[in-house]
Amino acid sequence: MSLQASAVESGGQPGPGEDVPEKKGASGGGFRTRATDLLSGSAGRNLGLVIALLLLCLIGLITAGDRFANVDNMMTVLRLASVIGVVSVGMTFVITGGGIDLSVGAIVALASVWATTLATQTMASDVHWILMVSTALAVGAGCGLVNGLLIAYGRMAAFIVTLAMLAAARGLAELIADKKTQVVTVGPFLDFFRGSLLGIPRLVIIFALVAVAGWVLLNRTAYGRRTLAVGGNPEAARLAGINVKRHQTSLYVLLGVACGIAAVMLMARTTAGTSTHGTLYELDAIAAVVIGGTLLSGGRGTIVGTVFGVLIFTTLTNVFTLNNLDTSTQAVAKGAIIVIAVLLQQRVAARSTPG
Amino acid sequence: MGAAHQAPDESAGASDRQPLLEMHDIVKHFPGVKALDGIDLDVRAGEVHCLLGQNGAGKSTLIKVLAGAHQPNAGRIIWRGEEVRLPNPQAAIKLGIATIYQELDLVDGLTVAENIHLGHERRNRWGFNAARESNAAAAELLGRLGHPEVSPTTEVGRMSAAGKQIVSMARALSHDAKLIVMDEPSAVLDQEEVGRLFRVVRDLSAQGVAIVYISHRLEEIREIGNRVTVLKDGRTVATGLEAKDTPTKEVIRLMTGRSIDYVFPDRGAGAPEGDPVLEVEGLGRTGEFTGVDFTVRPGEIVGLAGMVGSGRSEILETIYGARKPTAGSVKVAGKRLRPGRVGSAMAAGIGFAPEERKSQALVLRDPIYRNVTMASLPRFSRRGFMHNAEERRAAAEHTGALDLRPNDVERAAGTLSGGNQQKVVLARWLLRECKVLLLDEPSRGVDVGARTEIYALVRSLAASGIAVVVVSSEIEEVIGLSDRVLVISDGSLVHDCPADEIDEHQVLDMVMEGEVA
Amino acid sequence: MSATARSRRTRTLTRIGALTAVAALAVGCTSNTPAEESNGGGDDGGTTAVSANDDPGETVTIGFSGPEADHGWLAAINSAAREEADKYEDIEFDIAEGTNDPSAQIAHIESFISKGVDAIVLLPTDGAALTEAATEAMQAGIPVVNVDREFSNEFAARVTILGDNYGMGVSAGTYACQLVEENDLGDAVIAEIAGIDSLPLTQDRSQGFEDALAECGQDVDRRVAAEFTVESGESAASNLLQAANEIDIIWNHDDDQGVGVKAAFENADRDEFFFIGGAGSANAMRWIEAGEMEATVLYPPTQAADGIRLARLLAQDKGLSDLVQVEVPRRIVLNAPVVTADNVEQYMPLGFES
């Protein structure tokens, strides 16, 4: 039964950006093959982003010198990246699972407002600031649950459901806050989240923890595997016994919780909760995720890429501000860098994929 | 299959004319792969030229070269005596070469006429699309194809696969094609539709249009082809064989490089014994099928024969819990399953290899091992964390046992041939040590050589004590593979008998007529 | 949802929202509105002239339409207008639902015309888009008072009341110059945190700032733009602080985003500079009182309230008492005063909660 002598297919090969580790012996020859081996790993897939970020840092170093390359500035960049970073890690899961969530910014706003109402803050200062945190997380999870149930069980398009949530959550946030900025007065809350550990701001540590947890969850657990399967081919996942609807719902809840965490971080960073928090997070997060290399159509996701995506954006703004560039120039350069980063990413990924 | 065996005779006069198309020594490299390594092909006007070869033999690449989608690294293409280059698809279309791909490239949201004229829309003198003129022209083309009943204003998304094929052909004709390349046009059609397709092909060749016809089904080639070219490993191993006079064995030998006696494995000695492991009682789903009763013993292969739309695939999916029955029950080893729950069926030991392997069974981008373990994730996770090494090892063990070649579980499932993909799906269920295996069209998209292997595998799985239910639109396959044949017509079971007591003609009559002949 | 002057109705809703919170979260929260502070619009700091203008006259109907109050300053403007109208027994106040849709606002004007109101006070979402509707009203004999955002045609309004964005910049710049001189800063490092950069009002403020600084030989060394939100203020300010190790003076255009800007100062542990704000929120006033902020430049949230007063005078055929001219002037540009620790008490009533 050795009829299937060769399974080499001429057509139907995976497109650029696919990850097909080539294990064949090096028949083609030296450098190319070794490079291919090197690029086929996780490092290789993100090499384009690494290059883009390094280039950006180089530009920062040349144009702003010490003002760019000092620990304080690095920490500022990381601190500014941390909030949108947490949301983007959550977004990576939803997009990998074949969904989309436009309501993240609004959920962040609602969670921040709900957790900073006079009543919540009064209770928090009487009992413990953890009440503010749990309020924000519960609001985030609740919004995510509503999104997920409507999408998975209500069979509505994710785009529409989360667009509705975007409007509703921000509206509710405005009603609760009366469109005012609610200043955080709970001292211990601010002290904790604005503090540092070993010279690293706690916000940055939270971001790192969320990213590591996200990476493990996506790459090392059955949950992550199911996420990839549900995003890659929901019908096949269903027929393989995966509860697709429940899984999809859980992805939105997960993102909702991430939004709750982000809200807490933002409350600490700005010392306030307001309905204008999280403006345009949906676009920033989706952009970071996609630049990172997660497929917008689902089925492939990379947390490392997402983190790089976020860092590229934040570093960009930092370098521009250090150079005193006006906002219009920044916007033009931002557009250019997005295209360059994705191009680099595609080129490198194509090299690491035979055919 | 047994019917209509007259091959068209128009080719007799065409044989000494100058070829319409000649391809000499075509070579095409992809990084790491030599897809074409010296292809020769000549096609005459008005003939049906069959192109055969296993998956990976280079058929797809060759037609892409011919369609102008790929540029060959070497070789010459001669069109009506003149050497030509086909730098892009437009150039090929301009010459009169039209290609109908396997995945039909039609736009679902547009009408038949709009699809036919896509890219060369009829315009009135103000530059707007001239709908009426376009519809009239489309109607004329459809009439020429012998399908005047297809309305030019129907939305293509609402049409059957067969209907779409007709539209694709009409589009080819609208470009005034002299040569139409058809890539496995019969793959998604049932027998009646195949019959209509053949009528159209014959009409076209009678009008002087040359057809390059690619198929896995050797019997079709005998029925419709004039001449045959066989490809293997990117080379032409035989060309210009007369379709009528070349024995099937010889064609298979050329394709696979070895000769095989018969594609179906022997049934085991003696009928399987023991209590039925799968019991289906009065199963029904409103509007699809009713009152389906049958049982399968361990080690037995039961085949369901029926036309597309007879309800055969629906029955299988309902047993598996992917559809919720409106009546009846399914028992495995005496235990009743929760209706409409895939989880319940899986837990009881049912495995299912669906009809559309690529869209229903596999995550094509993912490596093989992940596709194998997809239904057994809890087994490889400790407190939620995946045990990757264990997972790869177990997957490789099962794919190895099924003779997956190459047995490299890191490859993306999408890079595999149809036969190997089927093995991946089977490995998924073997990993779960399933008791019952439901196979919907197990050989769809699998080439001849690999089919034999799949059949042998199914038989050996049965021999190991698994109860197997096979659904197929190829009656020959149902009879050849099964111990027992169930005939489905119009949503009900019309016949149940041992496979060696029935032949293709009887089954064909029953699926058509709905009663015992 | 009504987005006009935030009043009792919204507060009730807030409570409902808050109560839902209790039910859903068991974390509990009720009304969150901080202790009511009197919003702007009161008698402006004891400058009332003695006249008979405040005596009740014939009852007049005044129609008011403004944009949705999605920003602290706009919310303040609406509530100030309402409170002003409530003060006069002879004003029948007809307030339309706040909207950011010019066509909805045009519809409001048309309904005012058909109702036959005596005067209209209009804060347009877009001055140009509402010029036509306002002209119609004027032609129908109804005087229109145009507030804050100017129409494209002069004849569309009887009176135009404007805040002074350029003047804000000038005030901030002049005050910065004064600081440089008083503290002997020499060539001071001056930074500017603007609002949304594409808005004309932001450009006007920046221009005024630059022009005033030039008068004393200073310039803007660092400039970043935020988006009028707390969060954007924090990010912009954080990056700004990294860009310069030593800053002498920072002018932030908007006190709403100022909450974030101030958080960024605390996050970076920096306070070597004079911090000047803009707009004049109650938060900013409190900071000034507490010595956490040097000054803020007022952009009065009383324009609509002034508009209501003038509309009443117009409808009752009265003039401005302190002018010799017997008629109400055509154009009033409000001053942008600097609020510092010295005079914050006086301006506190004008500070709006944001």
TrEMBL record, chain C:
Keywords noted in UniProt: Signal
SUPFAM superfamilies: Periplasmic binding protein-like I
InterPro entries in the cross-refs: Peripla_BP_I, SBP_2_dom
Top-level taxon of origin: Bacteria
UniProt subcellular location: Cell envelope
Signal peptide: 1-35
Domain Periplasmic binding protein positions: 62-318
Primary subcellular site in the record, as a coarse category: other
Region Disordered: start-end pairs: 31-56
Membership in a protein family: Belongs to the bacterial solute-binding protein 2 family.
Protein name as annotated: Substrate-binding domain-containing protein
Lineage: Bacteria, Bacillati, Actinomycetota, Actinomycetes, Kitasatosporales
